[in-house]
Amino acid sequence: SKAITIEWKAKKTGDVVTTSAAPGDNLLRLAQRHEIPLEGACEGVVACSTCHCILEPGLYDSLPEASEKEEDML
Q1: CA distance 31 to 29
Q2: Coil, helix or strand for 18?
Q3: Torsion over CA: 42, 45, 49, 55 (sign)
Q4: Which of 25, 36, 53, 69 could form a disulfide with 21 if both were Cys (CB 3.0 to 4.6 A apart)?
């Protein structure tokens, strides 16, 4: 499948790191692989919400609605 370009922008400094990913890649693992400081206190089992990412509004709006299971996790 086609590679996706991801730009990671540090909230505090504004620094941007660009990485490549495949559709379906785990964003926490991708950040860790590229030494991007993204906390994942629960090691990526979606139990703590420390690894949340903020998406651009257009990208966020293009995602499908969250399922009931996803909503329950939040």
Answers
A1: 5
A2: strand
A3: positive
A4: 25
Q: How far apart are CA 67 and CA 10, in angstroms?
A: 29
CB 32 within 8 A of CB 40: yes
Token code pair at residue 21: 């990913």
Q: List pLDDT tens digits, range 7-42.
A: 999 888 999 999 999 998 988 899 999 999 888 888
Identify which of 4, 48, 47, 10 has the alpha carbon closest to the alpha carbon of residue 27: 4
Q: How many Cβ atoms from other residues are within 10 Å of residue 5's Cβ?
A: 8
Q: How far apart are CA 74 and CA 69, in angstroms?
A: 9
45-67 burial, b if ≥16 CB within 10 A, otherwise e? eeeeeebeeeeeeeeeeeeeeee
Residue 39 and residue 51 in contact, taking contact as beta carbons nearer than 8 Å:
yes
